[in-house]
């Protein structure tokens, strides 16, 4: 340490690292590391490291009298100090790319410790000692990969060089965490969430099943993990079920859990969760309160859609869904095509249901009707021509619509071809099950 006697900040930082390694408290090492390029201490540490010279000697001074004397820990600390010395906070593409490469090396050495069983370390350090550090490094590596791709002169909308590198490193750590080896599983959902974010960012949603499969055996223990990780896991899985698989009810369950568990003060996160949750509500017929939409500034994209569905008004729905603002909003969510297809069927149901309720008295449980409600196809033809303002509708179109509704479970009925009449199921619902109970809601695209 004599060579750096006059380098107060560096000496203080090395002492802090040595103390963290000696304490055997995992969070202390993670807190001691300077990993942000915007950290005000970084320029001074960089200058003093450049003057100190030999990195290996500095590492020896850190690990002396600590359990972290083995090669893997030395390589990690060497990579970390090289990152402090050589990484630059400037915004140029070359500087950001260089910073990512240096941090990538730090991450690789940390994940090597995470993967290995190091006798001299594990005898004195807890099995999960590296996990808080690995989780923090994972988050920073992902954020830096996004930034490096964004400023890269070679970046294209479908090219994610740095994010793809981050995927490679995090996938390796995730696979280890999913094996249920001692000391590995506490990192599982943090890594899963970051990989989900990477897959959505790089448009690689077909890789998402590896996350769902890898976490399946641990989902029953999700409540043991930090609340933030629970929220984000449900959010990402819910979005995947919605966007890629069109499993609306599963998506709704995950997103509703995420929204409920998200802290009320985290307005931005709750709004981020609420947007796809409201998409599932549209398909399931679960209208939110106007106050909720107003509170999260989501009235503009959603209120016209809910109003159009409530009124069974196809023209209003078309205007609301195809407006420039709504189109941009729902395309960013990745659900515009799904909404256009699903809500069309919901509207068919709405037009038929509205027509039936116009020609039949409301159901009275004290005096239930003896015969099932019926509606002639000709009456439905008139209703569809009015609703769509399209005189080209014919009986074949209406019959096809009714068959589709029957096939998907949106309507409980049968068609009496001899009289061209739809005969609906008796009961309070008059042949129209609640949307949330309809099997066809979860039709996979």
Draw up the topology in text.
Layout: H1 8-23, H2 26-32, H3 42-52, H4 55-63, H5 71-86, H6 93-115, H7 119-122, H8 131-151, H9 161-177, H10 188-201, H11 208-216, H12 227-245, H13 248-261, H14 267-284, H15 290-295, H16 299-310, H17 314-322, H18 324-333, H19 336-359, E1 374-376, H20 377-388, H21 395-408, E2 413-416, E3 421-424
Antiparallel strand pairs: 1-3, 2-3
Helix pairs in contact: 1-2, 1-4, 2-8, 3-5, 4-5, 5-6, 6-8, 6-9, 8-9, 8-10, 9-10, 10-12, 12-13, 12-14, 13-14, 16-17, 19-21, 20-21
Keywords summarizing the entry:
mainly alpha; 64% helix; 3 strands; three-stranded antiparallel beta sheet; 21 helices
Can you describe this structure?
- This protein has 445 residues and is mostly helical.
- The protein is 64% helix and 2% strand.
- The chain is built from 21 helices and 3 strands.
- The chain has helices spanning 8-23, 26-32, 42-52, 55-63, 71-86, 93-115, 119-122, 131-151, 161-177, 188-201, 208-216, 227-245, 248-261, 267-284, 290-295, 299-310, 314-322, 324-333, 336-359, 377-388, 395-408, and strands at residues 374-376, 413-416, 421-424.
- A 3-stranded antiparallel sheet has the order 1-3-2.
- A hairpin with a 4-residue loop joins strand 2 and strand 3 (421-424).
- Helix 2 (26-32) runs parallel beside helix 8 (131-151) and helix 6 (93-115) runs parallel beside helix 9 (161-177).
- The protein is elongated, with a radius of gyration of 29 Å.
- It starts with 7 loop residues before the first helix and ends in a 21-residue tail after the last strand.
- The relative contact order is 0.05.
């Amino acid at each position: 340490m004599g060579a750096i006697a006059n380098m107060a900040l560096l000496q203080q930082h090395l002492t802090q690292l040595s103390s963290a390694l000696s304490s055997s408290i995992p969070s202390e090492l993670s807190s001691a590391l300077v990993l942000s390029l915007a950290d005000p201490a970084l320029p001074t540490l960089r200058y003093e490291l450049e003057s100190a010279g030999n990195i290996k000697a500095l590492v020896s001074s850190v690990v002396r009298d600590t359990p972290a004397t083995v090669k893997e820990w030395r390589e990690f600390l060497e990579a970390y100090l090289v990152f402090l010395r050589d990484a630059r906070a400037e915004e140029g593409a070359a500087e950001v790319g260089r910073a990512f490469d240096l941090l990538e090396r730090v991450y690789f050495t940390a994940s090597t410790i995470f993967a290995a069983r190091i006798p001299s370390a594990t005898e004195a350090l807890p099995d999960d000692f590296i996990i808080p550090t690995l989780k923090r490094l994972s988050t920073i590596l992902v954020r830096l990969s996004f930034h490096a791709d964004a400023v890269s002169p070679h970046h294209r909308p479908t090219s994610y060089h740095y994010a793809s590198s981050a995927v490679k490193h995090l996938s390796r750590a995730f696979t280890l965490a999913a094996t249920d080896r001692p000391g590995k599983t506490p990192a599982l959902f943090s890594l899963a969430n970051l990989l989900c974010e990477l897959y959505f960012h790089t448009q690689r949603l077909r890789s998402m099943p590896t996350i769902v499969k890898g976490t399946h055996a641990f989902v029953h223990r999700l409540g043991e993990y930090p609340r933030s990780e629970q929220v984000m896991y449900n959010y990402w899985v819910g979005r995947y079920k919605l966007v890629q698989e069109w499993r609306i009810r599963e998506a709704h369950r995950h997103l509703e859990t995420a929204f409920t568990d998200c802290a009320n003060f985290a307005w931005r996160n709750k709004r981020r969760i609420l947007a796809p949750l409201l998409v599932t509500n549209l398909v399931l017929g679960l209208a939110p309160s106007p106050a909720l939409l107003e509170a999260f500034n989501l009235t503009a994209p959603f209120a016209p859609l809910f109003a159009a569905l409530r009124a069974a008004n196809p023209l209003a729905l078309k205007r609301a869904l195809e407006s420039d603002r709504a189109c941009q909003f729902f395309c960013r969510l990745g659900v515009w095509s799904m909404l256009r297809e699903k809500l069309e069927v919901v509207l068919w149901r709405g037009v038929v249901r509205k027509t039936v309720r116009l020609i039949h008295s409301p159901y009275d449980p004290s005096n239930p009707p003896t015969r099932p409600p019926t509606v002639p196809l000709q009456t439905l033809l008139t209703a569809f021509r009015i609703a769509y303002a399209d005189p080209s509708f014919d009986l074949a179109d209406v019959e096809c619509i009714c068959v589709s509704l029957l096939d998907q479970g949106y309507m409980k009925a049968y068609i009496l071809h001899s009289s061209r009449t739809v005969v609906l199921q008796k009961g309070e619902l008059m042949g129209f099950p609640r949307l949330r109970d309809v099997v066809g809601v979860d039709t996979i695209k």
